[in-house]
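Run: sequence + zinc ion -> complex structure.
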Amino acid sequence: MRLSSSLAKSAKSQADNFVSFKSKGLEQEWETLRQKNLGLYGLIENVAYFTKEKMKKGVVITMIYRTEQQQKALYSARKTPPKTSYHMDWKAVDLRSKTFTADEIEDICNYLNKHYNGFNKCVLKSGKICTALYHKIENNGFHFHVQYNGPVVGRPFQYDSLPSPLKYNPSDADKVAFEAVA
Ligand SMILES: [Zn+2]
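>> structure
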């Protein structure tokens, strides 16, 4: 269970949590994401289990929803800025990468692409299906960009031994979906 007192919460390291947030407003967006795109919500919890088990640290969400104005501002330095983003449609989440080593970053991208690309409708500009990439936009820092539009996929069986402080628990049917691509 998460500690309820805000004092205890702030004293607690972000790395101790499965999923934590860069800013307060993202906590509300995270709840909205659950309504808008349960597949992506489950994916983020899933990768948090993976990093927690394998790397002993959780994930920090740095961006979920982006308005059209925010999209314009982000790419303002570019001559032909992309007009749309999966962030504008609740289909993308950014995660902090600086808490992970280069090997861990590669592991995380491989884990997500291996297990989710087979279900995912999100593509890159080239048309290639992609779930996770490590990149930077203009003058902003490197981060994980995770995009997903597809069914809810359960986490792999090997992580079931971990305590479950999270709200989403995959059903047996969801776990079958994961096995199909594992
Ligand atoms: Zn992104």
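>> summary
Residues 14-179 form one domain. Strands lie at 19-21, 59-63, 92-96, 132-135, 143-147.
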